[in-house]
Amino acid sequence: MIVRELNTALPWYRSLLGDPDLTPMEGVAEWKIADNAWVQVSEELERAGGSNVILQVDDIEAARREVDEKGITTGEIADYGFVRVLDLSDPDGNRVSLVQDA
User: Fold this and answer.
1) Where, by residue number, does the polypeptide cross the bilayer (predicted)?
2) What CATH number should be reported for the domain holding residue 92?
């Protein structure tokens, strides 16, 4: 995920993912979300706001309640028959989609 300023974006990502597992260099934070999967947030003013990531959840209704309780703005859960999707946007407009298989 590419953001304008990491220090501005970090509170949002901490609310969603907790504290970063790594900060390998200035302007970069990383979260280990599975044994072989990471989410990286990095600072690059010119490219900020166009990233997407999809995170699978077991219970999308519970995930929505959890992010709502953390103050993260959500939209409606979209049901496509084979998958249900809840889109979130970080302060730079990057999209984080929470998905549950139907």
Assistant:
1) none
2) 3.10.180.10
